[in-house]
Model the fold of this input.
Amino acid sequence: MERIRKHFIFSGRVQGVGFRWRSSQIAASLGLTGWVKNQWDSTVELEIQGTREEIGKFLSMLYQQRYIQIEDVQTKEIPLETDSGFHIR
Done:
């Protein structure tokens, strides 16, 4: 299966609700790599790398989290990078 890397900016109730921790736990459980960090404007920026199906499952699991309320997502596909693990920045 072809691996891809995607860049996301999530807005809504995404800071102060465990978004970064939950996203890192979900990504690790699926074997995905990348990073997540809070932005000054109350959004969360995330890059993730894996197969299209794995990333889709990651997003589905993220949307099901109790306290996280994603209202908008900006996304684009970006070039693959060499990284290991998924990290909170």
About this structure: The chain has two helices and five strands. The chain has one domain: 3-82.
